[in-house]
Amino acid sequence: MASITIYHNPACGTSRNTLALIRNSGVEPEVIEYLKTPPTRTTLQELLAAMRIGARELLREKGTPYAELGLSDAKWSEDELLDFMVQHPILMNRPVVLTPLGAKLCRPSELVLDILPDPQRAAFSKEDGEAVVNAQGQRV
């Protein structure tokens, strides 16, 4: 069985859909509610390296202090942006998923299918009813 970790926010529909897709592949992932157990600076650096993205690409604007902190300004360095995410974990976009096949920010949730080692076991629709996987376990 594959080892999978999801940095999850249960209040987020995209995060809930992503978790459900992981479970639909027959795997129970390690679920890290990152607002309760925020990642360390080192963990954030490891996640960014695994996803091959910069800190700015992991920032979430909506429902965060992004605007209030002036984070749209290009003056902020990678290190400074990491400092902001450590201080304000809500700035980290979600869900982030790590699997043996890679790491990805799964927005939209079906992006997780690209890195799941095991196939989908059943049809799956998002909470809003949008079909993602058919009865044969294939992407719609």
- Fraction of residues in H or I helices: 25-40%
Major β-sheet annotation = 4 strands, mixed
> What percent strand?
15-25%
The number of domains: 2
Regions with pLDDT < 50 over 5+ consecutive residues?
A: none
- Radius of gyration over C-alpha positions, nearest whole angstrom: 16 Å
**CATH superfamily assignment of the largest domain?**
Glutaredoxin
In the CATH hierarchy, the third-tier topology of the largest domain is known as Glutaredoxin
Distance between the termini: 25 Å
Can you tell me the CATH architecture of the largest domain? 3-Layer(aba) Sandwich
Helical run tally: 4
The total of beta strands comes to: 6
State mean pLDDT (0 to 100 scale).
97
Lateral arrangement of strands in the main beta sheet:
2-1-3-4
Describe the fold and architecture:
- It contains 4 helices and 6 strands, in the order E-H-E-H-H-H-E-E-E-E.
- The protein is an alpha+beta fold and 140 residues long.
- The protein folds into 2 domains: 1-34 and 94-140, 3-Layer(aba) Sandwich (Glutaredoxin), CATH 3.40.30; 40-92, 3-Layer(aba) Sandwich (Glutaredoxin).
- The strands form 2 sheets. It has a 4-stranded mixed beta sheet, sandwiched between helices. The chain has a two-stranded antiparallel sheet with strand order 5-6.
- The longest helix has 12 residues, at 13-24.
